[in-house]
Amino acid sequence: MSKSLKCLFLVQDEQKIILEHYYNSLKVSLGNLVIRRLNSKEQANLELYFEQNIETSKYDRIIIFLRFKKELAQVDFIQTIPNLIILEHDSYQNYMKGCKYKGKFTKYYSQLVWAKILVSGYTVCQKLQAEGFDANFVPKGYDSDLLIDLGKERTVECGFIGGLKNSTYKARRKFLEGLVGGEIGLEIMQTTPGNDYLETMNKIKFFISADIGFGEYMIKNFEAMACGCILFTYSHGSKENSAIGFEDLKNVVLYNSKVELLEKLNILRSDKVLSAKIAKAGTLLAQNYTWDKIAQKAASVIEEPLRTPVLTKGFFGRVKADWS
Q1: How does the average pLDDT of the chain come out, rounded?
Q2: DSSP secondary structure string for all residues of 279-290
Q3: What are the b/e assignments for 52-65, b being 16+ CB within 10 Å?
Q4: What is the DSSP string of 105-153?
Q5: What residues contact 202, with CB distance under 8 A and at least 6 apart?
Q6: Which residues pair with 12 in a beta bridge?
Q7: Across residues 218-231, what is the average pLDDT?
Q8: Which residues have CB under 8 Å from 20's CB, separation 6+?
Q9: Distance (Å, whole) CA 12 – CA 49
Q10: Which pLDDT score, from 0 to 100, does residue 165 have?
Q11: CA-CA distance, 165 to 157, in Å (whole number)?
């Protein structure tokens, strides 16, 4: 891989998910990457931040991975950033029924059609490509330095760790809360990041994931498999499953309803050999999604040629770029 490109990477300093491993792996893969962490105030005024801190002519690629809400409000300035690449893990919300950002990503990207976009869902990527955008599939991953199978006794049969309060998780919350008690007996847990999360994940035998309506698989799926859980995950269809490598009852358990989930759960409750095979295969599959490997994939996309913008002057005299 070429180390000749000089790249600038702007990220959130208050990112809820710890992604330092990803950032550092990307730096290794690209070889010449400057990482800058922007606080909320800096993200809200990118024009001032660039004016005071960045000489854009020094960089062959400028990658932004910032809060979408703040990017959307500053598209006029973002249009002027040369060699632009947008990394985005939430673009599935563009197609999510009832989501406040439904259609907003299309609106945003339509004003930046020359920009290269890295998205984390295969079918989302296909939809964006069909709309004419330079979208590229780079899946989510997990921190392999932290999350491993500790080989301990699994004391929680069915469990889920994670948030349910965000409005984006409405369908997830409704479904998972319906599994508490009864025949499934799901335990919904909260932990702190780091060792507490690792230890709790390693207590769970069947991790019940419910990314309903998302159209792609969230980070927790890979984290659960890496920790040796048997992953039960809501299916996003054959194309997404094939792209990720999910095979039902081989390395994961796919379901489309509570009834199907319970049927397959009962099969595995009585078949310890099959359960062990799925857990092992899932852990092996997860190794394809370490941040090291995802960073290598991202770097190869970043190094590919960019679309050429044509500079024009807008109504107020600001120089803008229109791809042709």
Answers
A1: 93
A2: HHHHHHHHGGGB
A3: eebeeeebebbbbb
A4: HHHHHTT-TTSEEEES-HHHHHHHHHTT-EEEE----B-TTT-------
A5: 149, 150, 152, 154, 227, 228
A6: 38
A7: 97
A8: none
A9: 13
A10: 80
A11: 24
Beta strand pairing status for 309-313 and 319-323? antiparallel
Domain ranges, ordered by start, for the chain: 7-141+292-323, 156-289
Max alpha carbon distance in the chain (Å)?
70
Residue 94 in contact with residue 104, Cβ under 8 Å?
yes
- Helix crossing, 291-302 with 20-30: angle to 10°? 50
Type of residue found at 118: L
Distance CA 153, CA 253 (A): 21
Instruction: Give the pLDDT of residue 41.
Output: 97
Ramachandran angles phi, psi of 304, nearest 5°: -70, 155
Q: Do domains 7-141+292-323 and 156-289 have the same CATH topology?
A: yes
Q: What is the mean pLDDT of residues 228-254?
A: 98
Q: Is the pLDDT of residue 268 over 90?
A: yes
135: its two tokens: 């979208």
Residue 216's nearest CA partner among 312, 120, 283 is 120
Pair of tokens at residue 164: 């349910």
Q: Give the residue ranges of DSSP H helices in 45-94.
A: 46-53, 68-72, 75-78
- Quickly name the fold that domain 7-141+292-323 has: Rossmann fold (3.40.50)
Two structure tokens written together for 131: 């709309």
Question: Any long-range contacts for 222-226 (C-beta under 8 Å, 24+ apart)?
Answer: 222/140, 222/141, 222/142, 222/286, 222/289, 223/142, 223/147, 225/251, 225/252, 225/282, 225/283, 225/285, 225/286, 226/142, 226/144, 226/147, 226/148, 226/149, 226/283, 226/286, 226/287
Q: Which residue has the higher pLDDT, 320 or 20?
A: 20
Mean pLDDT within 303-320 = 66
pLDDT category of residue 322 using cuts at 50, 70 and 90: low
- Taking the domain 156-289, which CATH number applies? 3.40.50.2000
324 against 52, higher pLDDT: 52
**Distance of alpha carbon 27 from alpha carbon 90, whole angstroms:** 22
**Residue range 27-55: mean pLDDT, rounded:** 97
